[in-house]
Design goal:
2 domains, 44% helix, single chain, alpha+beta, Ribosomal Protein S5, domain 2, 306 residues, four-stranded mixed β-sheet, elongated
Length: 306
């Protein structure tokens, strides 16, 4: 490839990045696009000339500077698709490092754990302490979910730190479901063999016209009964169908039996908030140590993990 061919190829790349020849000329400091158009035609004429000299250095520098390229960029061959893949891979590695940094143990205690779950769709870190004070820190990229997770922490007196980088450019589905899965895994680890806990928990929580009931059995058997008919499909930008996906993932991986019933409600925000507050309160009761059951397994079969 001669200089003219190389410069023409890279000029086409810059035109595509800028959106048009006129915009490339503007960014590169040309008073009008005609000058750059003449350069383009000259390169096209030299395309088959083995002695084509291409663009002189001063003009190359203007193009490189205008488009934020390093000096000498115009004199090297480029594969835009390969460079995109490299940038995407680099961004993925940076995201994994960020999640790994966040995955260092955040809380201390006998029932404090950190779980990291990375897939091609989401990268998640969940830290929790079942014997906490209700501290919550959330960065999921889904603001309404952050608000609901904060209800679990606050009303469950569970310290909870959740960070997620998910494919939100598609939708919220993978992020919400996978956070439920990872939180379930963390709960299962933190509970250990479950000796001495109450095992069962329940709560009724009202919010104005709405009322929800949640009943939990840390049974070692996954089961979800979910009775909640939202009065609208979206709360802001959040799809309410995703709440059932969240709880299904949590139940499957925490190995709990969970009954959720919204008994009444007209405001969808209130319906969701009563559900999460009741879940936090019921979970708080279920994971508490029972002084009368100190060291005793709350099951006649002698185990809640098999």
């Amino acid at each position: 490839m001669n200089k003219a061919q190389l410069h023409l190829q890279n000029l086409y790349i810059l035109m595509k990045e800028a959106g048009s020849l006129a915009e490339l000329a503007r960014r590169s400091g040309y008073e009008n696009s005609a000058s750059l158009s003449q350069i383009k035609r000259r390169l096209e004429q030299q395309n088959t000339d083995e002695n084509g000299r291409g663009i002189r250095a001063s003009l190359l520098a203007k193009l490189e500077s205008g488009m934020g390229k390093r000096k000498g960029w115009m004199d090297r061959e480029h594969d835009p698709e390969a460079e995109k893949r490299q940038k995407k891979a680099a961004a993925g590695r940076a995201a994994e490092k960020a999640v790994a940094a966040a995955s260092a143990p955040v809380f201390e205690g006998k029932r404090a754990v950190t779980v990291v779950r990375n897939t091609s769709e989401t990268r998640i870190s969940v830290s929790l302490n079942l014997d906490g004070s209700g501290v919550g820190r959330f960065d999921t990229g889904v603001p309404f979910l952050d608000h609901m997770l904060d209800q679990i922490a606050r009303h469950g007196l569970i310290d909870l730190d959740i960070a997620c980088q998910g494919d939100l450019h598609i939708d919220d589905h993978h992020t919400v479901e996978d956070i439920g899965i990872t939180l379930g895994q963390a709960l299962k680890q933190a509970l250990g063999d479950k000796a001495g806990i109450r095992r069962y928990g329940h709560a009724y929580v009202p919010l104005d016209e709405a009322l929800s009931r949640v009943v939990i059995d840390l049974s070692g058997r996954p089961g979800l009964v979910y009775n909640l008919e939202f009065t609208r499909a979206m709360i802001g930008r959040f799809d309410v169908d995703l709440f059932s996906e969240f709880f299904q993932g949590l139940v499957n991986h925490s190995m709990m039996t969970l009954h959720i019933d919204n008994l009444r409600g007209k405001n969808a925000h209130h319906q969701a908030e009563t559900m999460f507050k009741a879940f936090g309160r019921a979970l708080r009761m279920a994971v508490e140590y029972d002084e009368c059951m100190a060291g005793i397994m709350p099951s006649t079969k002698g185990t809640l993990t098999a």
